[in-house]
Amino acid sequence: MVKAFIFSSIKDIDEKSNLKKWNTEFTCKESTYEYSYDYKSKHETLITVGNKMLFDKQEFCIIIGTISNIEFLREKIQFNDEYDTESIIICLYNMYGLECFRMISGSYVCFIKSKTKYVFASGKTSGPCLYYKINSINERVLVTSELKCIPKEDRIMTDFHKLTVDKMYGNKSITNLNDVKKVIPGHCIEIDFEKQICRDVEYFMPNGSITIFDDEEAKYEIRKALESYIDKINVNKITSLISGGVDSSIITYLASKKINDMELYTIGTEDNNEFDFANMFAKSIGYSAKELLFSEENFLDSYVEIIKLVEHSHSVFLEYLVPIQIAHSKLSSEKRKIISGYGSDILFAGFAQKNMNIQNISQLVWNEYISTFWSNETSQNLADNYGFEVFYPYFDDKLVELSFKIDPSLKFKNKIEKYILRYSYKEDIISDIIWRKKVGVHQGTGCEDYFTKLLNISELNKENRERVKDYFAYKIFEALFVNKELVDNDYLKFLAKGIRYDI
C-alpha cells in the first residue's frame, strides 16, 4: 500500500528535475520509489512511499487510505478478484468520469493519471490529505499527499490574516503555503492538459433535508450506522484511548462486543486527568484502563511535532491533538490498530451552549463540520509517524450523511449536548458516563491551561486568546517548513515572550 506520494508534471522537458534534490520529506519512514520519464512533451516525476507500483506512464492510480466498499465496486464493473483496487478505480473513472467518486466509500484520497487527464480527489469526509499547485506559465502541476514534500522554492507563507478560522469558511482549500491548495473532502480536481481546462467539482456534501424527527428512529439509525462500521473492522486486536467521556466510551463499548483482544489506555498529568471516569467506564465493560502520565515539559515538544504532522497552525485543533500525540509516542513499541472517538462533537452539537436555539445549533454543526476540512485530525500522518492505523467510526461517510438528516433539536435536547447520541446508548453505557458533561481532551489534560499560561494571555477574551495562540503556531510552522530553523524549547519560550496581543 502506498503511504504517501509526490507527483510533478512540467511541459518544458528541458527543466527535468529530480524530486529528491528538492529535499522532499515524508512522515512515513518506509522505502521510497522514484519514476521519472517523458510523456507527450511533458516531463513527469513520481515518488511513492511504502510500495513499489506496477507502473504504466500512460495511466495509473495512487490511493492513500482505505476504500471500504471495494467488493461493491468490483461487482459494479464485473472485475474478477485478480484486479487490484487501483485498477478498479481507473476502470470506474474511464466508465463514469467524475461521477465514479459518488460510488466510492472510505477514508481516502486518490490521484489518477489517464491518457489525457490528471484527476485528484478526496473522499467524502475528512481523512488523508491531498495538496496541489498549478502554475499556468510553464504548465506545471504538482500534487502531493503532504505539504512537507513541497519544493523549497514553493514554500511561501500565506498571510496570517487570511488563515484565521473565520475567513477560512470562505476559502476551504487554503493552506499555510501560498498558492498551494488542499483538495476539499467531497471534491475532485480534473485537469485536461490537451484542452487546457481545470475544474473543481463538488461531488458530495452532506447538506440534505432533515428527515428524522423522532428519538427512536434516530436511535435506530445511529446504532445501525455505528455498528455496521465496527463490523467491517477486520482485526484481532485493537487499542482504544478513553477519557471516560461519551464519545470514546460508546466506540470502545461497541468494539468490545466484536473484538476480544482490547487494550484500554487513558492519558493525563498528575494534576489534570480523567483517570477516575476512564477507570469507571473500563470496569463497567470488564476491562481496566492503563494510565499514561506525562508532564508539562512534554507539551512544547509535542506541540512542535503535531505542527509537523498535521501541517497547519490552527491552535484549537493542535491543542486537542497534543495529548493524543503523547499517547501515541508512549504506545510506539509495537504496531497497533487504534479506534478513535473523534468526530461526534462535530456531528452531534457537542459544542452547543445553553443559550443556543435550534437555528444556532444548525449553523454550529455545519461550521464545525466545515472546520474538519483543514483540521487534518484524521490525516493518518500522526498515526503513520508511529506505525499505527486509526479507525474513525464517527467519520464514516454513512454516519456523517445520517447526522445531517437528524433534526438539530434532537442533538441539543433538554439543554444536553449530543443528547440523541447519549440517548441511543443509555441502556448500554453506565449513567455516570453516558450523561457526563463534555470535557475536551485539551481541557482534561491541562493542555489548554498550559498554553494560556505560557503565552500570558489569561486576561484576554476567548477570541483574542485563540488569535494569539494561532499566531504562535503560525510562527512555528514558518520556522519548520519555510525557514528550516531549529525549533527547540528555548526558541519556543523566546517566541512566546515576543508574541504581540494586537496581531
Based on the model shown, name its key terms.
503 residues; alpha+beta; six-stranded antiparallel β-sheet; Rossmann fold; 20 helices; five-stranded antiparallel β-sheet; Glutamine Phosphoribosylpyrophosphate, subunit 1, domain 1; globular; single chain
Describe what this molecule looks like in 3D.
The strands form four sheets. The protein has a six-stranded antiparallel beta sheet, with no helix packed on it. The model has no long low-confidence stretch (mean pLDDT 89). α5 (215-232) runs antiparallel to α13. It has helices spanning 70-76, 85-96, 100-103, 165-168, 215-232, 246-258, 275-284, 297-310, 315-330, 344-347, 358-375, 381-384, 397-403, 408-411, 419-424, 431-434, 441-444, 447-454, 462-482, 489-498; strands at residues 4-10, 32-39, 42-49, 60-67, 106-113, 117-122, 131-135, 140-144, 181-182, 187-192, 197-202, 237-241, 261-268, 289-293, 337-339, 389-391, 412-413, 416-417. It folds into two domains: 4-202, Glutamine Phosphoribosylpyrophosphate, subunit 1, domain 1; 215-298 and 328-439, Rossmann fold. It has 503 residues and is α+β, with helices and mostly antiparallel strands. β2 and β3 form a beta hairpin.
Classify the fold: give the CATH topology of the largest domain.
Glutamine Phosphoribosylpyrophosphate, subunit 1, domain 1
Q: Roughly how many Å apart are the termini? A: 44 Å
Fraction in beta strands: 15-25%
Radius of gyration over C-alpha positions, nearest whole angstrom: 23 Å
Q: How confident is the prediction overall: mean pLDDT? A: 89
Tally of structural domains: 2
Task: Name the overall outline.
Answer: globular
* Annotation, overall tally of beta strands: 18
CATH architecture of the largest domain: 4-Layer Sandwich
Poorly predicted sequence stretches spanning 5 or more consecutive residues: none
The main β sheet shows up as: 6 strands, antiparallel
